[in-house]
Amino acid sequence: MPDSEDKILENEQRYRAGAYGLLAALLRAVPERPLLEHLVTLSPQSDAEADALFEAMSGLAAAARNIDLNQLEDEYNALFIGVGRGEVVPYASWYLTGFLMEQPLSDLRDDLRALGFERSAETQEPEDHAAAIFEVFSVMISDATSFSEQQRFFETHMKPWLGSFFADLGNARSADFYKTVAQFGAAFTELESAYLSMHS
Predict the structure, then answer these.
(1) In the chain, which end has fewer C-beta atoms inside a 10 angstrom radius, N or C?
(2) Euclidean distance between CA atoms 105 and 53, whole angstroms
(3) What is the CATH number of domain 2-199?
């Protein structure tokens, strides 16, 4: 029985890390064909406690199936790049203070250093970009960081603003494919909040 439970837990962690890695890839840059082909293969299992996530994953897979890459690039640029800035600003500092490069970024950098993460010299984006935070959290899960530390990081650096970010992304004028990304992100992070509360 313990072996079976360990296997279930291992699969859960692999799934969680993969989902965060997927969100990071979708938000970091314009998705390329291999990533979209991967999305099409997603076959979520329906779960009474996760119907919103099941529907969101199904919608994401369907949206990726017949996407036009040029339109997707235009959509991404309008949402996140724009002239000056895009429709949606995917930074924790922006959502928590209304400005970029503020205290939430400094607090995040302190925690990242304490966890052993070092900023790459090639990295241009501040660490409080949603994609960067998701990538870090994916690594934390893969490295078997304790659930209590995962929950603390999630509650401090993710939960206070990601709901608003995904709501804005889903409602943005230019969002089409990214409406489904927003639905998936919102459903997954909501489920994560409950999961971490149970396991910490």
Answers:
(1) N
(2) 29
(3) 1.10.3480.10
